[in-house]
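Hi R.,

Here are the chain sequences for the assembly we discussed:
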Amino acid sequence: MRSKILLALGAVCAGLLTWDFYRIFDMLPDEANQGAIYRIIYIHVPSAGTAFTFFTIAMLASVLYLATGKFKYDAVSAALIEVGLVFAGIVLVTGSIWARIIWGVWWAWEARLTTMLICWLTYAGYLMLRRAVEEPTQRARLSAVLSIFGFAEVVIVYKANVWWRTLHPGPVLTIRNGGGMAPGMENEIYWNMLAFVCLAVVMVMVRMRQEEIAREIDSLRRMAHSY
Amino acid sequence: MSSELRTAEAGAAVRIEPRARPRTSLLAKIWTITAKDLRSEMRTKEALNASIAFSLVILVLFSFAFDPSSDQFQEFSGGLLWLVFSFAGALVLNRSFARETQNDCLDGLLAAPIPAAALFLGKAFANFALLIAVEVVSIPVFGLFYDVHWAGQFGELALVTLLGTWALTVIGTFFSALTVNLRMRELMLPTLVYPLMIPALMAAMKLTTDLLAGTPINAENVFGLKLLAGFDFIFTLLSLVMIDTVLVG
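And here is the predicted structure of the full complex:
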């Protein structure tokens, strides 16, 4: 059943991505001021949305793990953060490429870029912590705590735009009271957001299955040793 | 029948009247831990000496990294000072819980009738005092080496230093507890702690640079002070809530 859902979701995701990329590269016109490079927003913004959504759900899963002690929440949290980190990496890389063209530099030590990088480093630390602890219960407990601390960081990242003066473009999406983007161009961001979330969910499901299998192998190995 | 009697007698014989345990307040418990940590540090001065010596070495190394007599120096003096504090502080913080692993001292502390939050706060206060001691030595030396007039805005500088140092202490002590049983403790602590400290360090560096340059706290940079205070509040609260999970499980 689960593998059928996975396959169906994968197929939907492949279809959506193909259609979106066809629209982004072939049907939408260049932007008046930035030219072709503006298209990076269709990768950049959905990736950021996916990463932040996943870090938030991972924090909730960590709280649930600490409250219930069920390992499935630990697996959810670990898988979400691992996939979220990949998307956070995409945000940093695509942002850098855009900045090289528009700002003329690969990197600016500006508030939102810096805090996004800090956020990335914090969650990379999460993955390192998981590798450093061998005992499964202790690993789940400590990494849940770190995920909650890391989330406090994500909140700071999100608010950084307000706290520090910033070079980063302000919100362009109407749902965040930004406006300023042509409706056709803006809608495509939401479609691609859907496709990215779909892709990420597929990745998380695969990763969770790996985590469960790994734990099963681990417990079988322990059983074998105890005889 | 007789065996029942014997048991009853034996039960009566071994019954121990609960001794009235002195009821100590939470503050007294916290102080006991702080005093214990400070006392054991003062007897060996291991972490303190290493930390002060290390901060002096970094201060000397800075003079090779840039031209200390240049005008630009004023623009990053605060940043350098906080780099010294955070690097030297890591030496103190790393040992905070690690020193309790010998002879199973940590198990003893956890078995003692004090809540884990009191243990954490006690250790945090001791670390805070040690970090302040390192800073009290390194700030005048910094001023002397690099011709920085630090005493001009003393009150405000002291406030920023106290808030910033508490931020380093609370994160450092918490993660010292979190990493205490890990194989790669010395590697994991800085990897986890520095990214989390950055927002507080950023604010403290900006404010200290302004204060050392003679600019008081004004409408433009007061956000840094708010950020520091907010950071201290949020992470102190989070640490107190989570420390039980980390230490006891």
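Chain B touches chain A at residues 178, 181-184, 188, 191-192, 195-196, 198-199, 202, 223, 227, 234-235, 238, 242, 245-246, 249 (CB under 8 Å). Chain B has a mean pLDDT of 85.

Let me know if anything looks off.

Best,
T.
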